[in-house]
Design brief:
With about 625 residues, the chain is α+β, with helices and mostly antiparallel strands. Helix content is about 15%, strand content about 40%. Among the domains are: about 90 residues; about 220 residues, Rossmann fold, CATH 3.40.50. A hairpin with a 2-residue loop joins strand 28 and strand 29. It starts with a strand and ends with a helix.
Amino acid sequence: MAEKQKIQHGLWPSSISPAMQGALLRLEGALFDNDGSLIWLEALSGQTALMYKKGADAPRDISGGMKIRAGVGYGGGDFTIRNGFAIFSSDHRLYQVNVNAGLPQPITPQFGDCASPVISPDGSQVLFVHTYEGQDCLALTNTNGQVWPVKLVSGSDFYMQPVWHPEGKQIAWVEWNHPQMPWDGTRLMTGSLNGSELCDVKQVFGSENIPVFQPEFSPDGRYLAFLANDGEWDSLQTLELSTGQRKTLVGNASMMEPAWGQGMRLFAWSADSSRLFYFKNKKCWRTLWVIDIASGQSTQLSTEPYTWFDQIAASPESDKLAILASSSKIPTRLVTWDNGEQLIERRSSGEAIPAAELPEPQAIEWPAPDGAIVHGLYYPPTSTRYFSDELPPTIINIHGGPTSMRSTSYNADAAYFSTRGYAYMEVNYRGSTGFGRSYMLKLREKWGLVDTEDAAGAAGALAALGLADPQRIVIKGGSSGGYTVLNALIQFPGVFKAGVNLFGVANLYDFMIATHKFEERYNISLVGPLPEAAERYKAWSPVFHAMQIKDPVAVFQGAEDRVVPLEHSEQIVAALKANGVPYIYRLYPGEGHGFRKTETIIDFYENLERFLKQYVLA
């Protein structure tokens, strides 16, 4: 092995280019058809492809060139399949396509938005979530598109995860009302179908303080399984339909995710209804387990070399599973498991970078002002070719949400910057999920305070541990993470050398008015109700204090953002300009809340790297 070359941190030549970042394929998850064939959605540069693969045949795109994206909330629940027919959401309506031949045909009118289609067991009907002019419902239509859709269930503010009983006469779903978010509390509902009418509707579980997630009927029709957070930790439960007996199969574990989108899947029934496959999360590392329903025995399955999994699906005719899998050294793959055998069905990249060149995260903890232990993942500068004997410049990243979590899945940003000689830190501040309900609730009515404290705490912890140069720490974040970036620069001047704000919330008042329906009352729990909490809204809205920012800021914004309108970024930029603070501002036409176009992603990394060289490394 050649001797390492000494080069300043941040200036290491890296094999990961902006073009490679822009070429990463987004894999959205897979489903099985009745015969075991596989269908999945992938996306690149704003374009999507619905891929179908049967047996040993090569996969092929069956979407007919259409852009597939469900439009309810943040999206998700884009497609389904049964009996050789796929249903997907595109351009404000549902389409059907025969997987063997033919082009997609519309089956619903073009109005509102659709998500989470599920086909009835006999293949004749489609149940789906629909939203129009702020009113959500569960709707029902025929798969041939010859019948006008009917409202099946309405009256609640939100609906999610509808499913059919295998006999086709009963359905289950999750619903909730403002101002609750789906991780605050939801209701698990069931109802019986009488033609196109629903009767015997009842609540099975959940409340304003107990969120329920992903109802799934067992293939034999005996049970309804679901995840719930009915205490400090999560549980996997079953309801025996004939007796009404509810049983906790797995408890005292972190298994749920905040339901930011439709179509999320964290467990699956075996084809013979005897077992449930599920994920467990322990401080950002996720494992795959199976439990035998009769004995209650859980077994961890071998999942080397992966550290994170998502979007599990089980074949209805075998023990095959399809899962999105990754690690810090392996970009996301679509993988199938079949009796212990792993097969890579699709890779999100060419995986050209050797594992030794990619960083391995280290769990870092430090005390918050209230005594709570805060969690983070630290990625050290990583190279087999270069070194520096100085402390590294460090990028502290604040995840969005804010009710979310950064895990040990593949982290493209951490890989990009650590291979250039930066350290990279992900902060799971108080309010993040995955560390117990009490930890998540610490953000209640304190958004703008505790997340900002934990960002500054991360900088101090890394400096104290000798893992970062305290004079060259950058804070970066998108959406709610961008909000924390701005507040940190205001509340803790001089702690950070520079800030990177991607479409961050700047005005809490405006956010309640201008954002989409899903989050329009989120601030009630995060900050407090108005007018009682008006002082907090003003104190924690960066736009009212932006004149206090003294450190350089890079601002990136999508022009068509429906969640955080561009006015938020432009008001911050105006304040930076008026105050003479160095800044760059990149506004991307055609982009929304998050960047998808290859040319945008390339431009983002190129501009951000130039910004860091000028204001952090110099």
